[in-house]
Amino acid sequence: MTLRPPRSSLGHVAVTQKVRDGAWRVVELITTPVVPADYLDVIAPLRNPTVLRARIDAVRPETAKAVTLVLRPGRGWQPHRPGQYVRLGVDVDGVRLWRAYSVSSAAGRADGRFTVTVNAVENGVVSSYLLKNARKGMLVHLDLPDGEFLLPEQRPAKALFVTAGSGITPVMGMLRSALHELSDVVVVHSARTAEDVVFGAELRDLAAQGRIRLIERHTLADGRLKPDGLADLVPDLFERETWACGPGQLLDDLEEHWADAGVADRLHIERFRTVVLVAGDGGTVTFEKSGLVVDAPGGTSILEAGEAAGQLMKSGCRMGICYKCVLPMREGIVRDLRDGTITTASEVDGDKPLIQTCISAAAGPCRIDA
Amino acid sequence: MTTLQRKEVNPIAHLSPEDIEQIGRELDAIRDEVLAVRGEKDAKYIRRVIAIQRRLEVGSRAVLLFSVFPPAWILGTIGLSISKILENMEIGHNILHGQYDFMRDPKIHSTTWEWDFAAPAEQWKHSHNELHHKYTNVIGRDNDLGYGIMRVDEQQKWAPAHLGQPLYNFINACLFEYGIAAYDLELGRNLSSKRRRNNPDFRARLRQVGRKIRNQMLKDYVAHPALSVPVGLAFGNPFGAFFGTLAANVVANVVRNLWSHSVIMCGHFPNGVETFERTSITGETRGEWYLRQMLGSANISGSKLMHIMTGNLSHQIEHHCFPDLPASRYAEIAPKVRALFEKYELKYVTGPFVVQVASAWSKVFRLAFPNRKPARPIDHAVPPRHPAEVSV
Q1: DSSP A196
Q2: A349 touches chain B (CB under 8 A)
Q3: Is the confidence at residue B317, as pLDDT, over 80?
Q4: Total Cβ atoms within 10 A of residue A112
Q5: In the prediction, which pLDDT does B327 show?
Q6: Nearest CA in chain A to B98
Q7: Exposure of B374 in the CB half-sphere (CA atoms within 13 A)
Q8: In B, which residues are within 8 Å of A93 by CB distance?
Q9: Which of B123, B170, B181 is nearest to B265 (CA)?
């Protein structure tokens, strides 16, 4: 928000604007070839209006495998709506990796901060890094909050939340934001054991106060939750507006169950990462802008495979030293033909690494933004 | 097969094709070792150098606001010169090589970086990364050899115009940033005919250079001098302030030009560095490419500070073998690379800065004149000899 001078006349405003633009151009000239913000970054990284960052203000362990980060976002942040996620860019061993995390705090906190709760994923590079290394004062990169897993403005009379594992995080954000506006809430949550329940104490507290009905299922002892079992636990489930978040299998089962009952529109789901990329040999390469699809063998560079199929591609040295051929990979997995290094990209994380097409071969299906 | 520009002695005559491929494999192994540890340390390093350079630049420019006072002028000019050298060498050159692309930080990336230099990054990356680093020291392909204006090898034909090459080289050194911009534009070639002059691609690149130079000049020679005028006014000498700061910027740019020109001359011009025949690189293998980089480059020995100020181009041999590895790792791998040279009886050309600069300049002077002995046409029937076989 900028303060504008009183509008005595439109001409006056235009002149002020012109002077301001001119002054800004001079400032830009003083710092050319970089922008003024690049100098500001050295001392005040949260003040950069074009690069959104956040500082970790506190780190709170939740369970042995989950940790909550209290984040103070910098300039340019826009508040989230309960249930949304935010993408965090974390420098893991010097490499910026992006992952999406649900916001777990209530919306509209007076201090402008928000929290995400990170659950360790098996072989998860970023989650295990944050669990081990997140410290007060650390900087992370951010994207604006996003996602359609939301409570409607018109709050439902009866609500059901079905969650498993880390799927509780967006639901916790919703409960913390809007529980006072909901009168009849059932939460069915699955976790391996009672100790593994993230926000366990808070949920049990809410249940004890009678503000929610909490059904905990400990899968190590009781086995995985099936939709039939859910109907036994919550007999009126189809009368309820339902939000579900958890592993893909659970969500698939629920979708089928709700569709069979003809009430698919009452079920809202949020899927976390669905694909685990495993390096193979060769793969289908899709050039998204041209629509070209190529079957690229594991020993052929994406550049050569694309060119052979008629894709127009930039190239320079064709031996991996000049970086002229780089293209963003939206999703997929490639192998460096020189040293075998694997690079992956996932649409969910929105991370589009630039890959050197002249020395990268497909190691699975790839979608290239070109 | 890589063949040296044929001389009477051939430093690779003793290597079999299998040896050459083995050298390539051993260099690949060194590269893999660095890749295995490349990470947070390298990211921290480049961010730190950038932070230091930006603080130094802002600090020096702040001191130069008081350029009417001689001590402030001297201090500010020294600081600004160092800052510009750091920005071009250890930061700009290395980032534009993609050495830090692995960080996936869009702010520190070869595709987004722009540097404080007349040549636009995009054009420089083409002529430097794509041409010079691929065709290193191949006569007729690598324009870095003499920058197209000098005779740098005995086998090149002498012409009377070469008498002036020490002078051209000195002028090029003083105006190095513009020399490089002209070189990236291939100005000589592209101005030679009307068809080339009117080529829309050339004209677009020419405009891009024009814009870059205009902004650079406005910054250094107008905006910053103007900022010192208020202080000058307060002390009754606004003109002194303006022109003092202007002079400081000119000096800093010239110092940076002379320094980078000298460092770069040391990279490929000193005695002992080999050149290669144009036809020799068809079908070149990876091992042969590595070998050409090893024989076509020369190092500068010196302190850690020396290495940083040269952007680690003092490790030119390591840089040419591994142009995309973080330059601050070159010192670490240099002993291994040097051991490889010794194992295969190759000459690792290195020496102190002053010696290497003198060696490069003496070559510029020597080759300004015709060869003393008329260049003997090479008898391709006689196999070249290894240096050890040639009695001195």
Answers
A1: G
A2: no
A3: yes
A4: 11
A5: 97
A6: A323
A7: 1
A8: 39-40
A9: B170
Burial of A58: CB neighbours in 10 Å, binned 0-12, 13-18, 19+: middle
Is-same-fold flag (A47-142; A158-271)? no
Q: Which two tokens stand for residue A89?
A: 């860019």
Full-prediction pTM beyond 0.95? no
Rounded Cα distance between B33 and B170, Å, is 41
Contact between residue A262 and residue A299 where contact means Cβ atoms under 8 Å apart: no
Distance from CA of A325 to the nearest CA of B (A): 11
Tell me whether residues B133 and A338 touch, CB distance under 8 A.
no
* pLDDT per 10-residue tile (average), chain A, 370 residues: 49 85 91 92 89 96 96 95 95 93 94 95 90 96 93 94 96 96 96 96 97 96 91 94 94 95 94 73 94 94 93 91 93 93 85 92 94
Q: Determine the Cα–Cα distance for residues A67 and A129; give it in Å rounded to an integer.
A: 11
From the list B80, B50, B60, the residue with the least C-alpha distance to B256 is B80
Size of interface A-B (CB pairs under 8 A): 105
CATH topology of domain A283-368: Ubiquitin-like (UB roll) (3.10.20)
Nearest beta carbon to residue A33 from set B38, B116, B129: B116
Q: Selecting from 3.90.226.10, 3.40.30.10, 1.10.3720.10, 3.40.50.80, what CATH number does the domain A158-271 have?
A: 3.40.50.80
Query: What does the domain layout of chain A look like in residue ranges?
Result: 10-46, 47-142, 158-271, 283-368
Task: Provide the 3-class DSSP secondary structure of residue A33.
Answer: coil
Which CATH number applies to A47-142?
A: 2.40.30.10
Across A257-272, b (16+ Cβ under 10 Å) vs e yields bbeeeebeebbbbbeb
A96: left (phi over 0), alpha (psi -120 to 50) or beta: beta
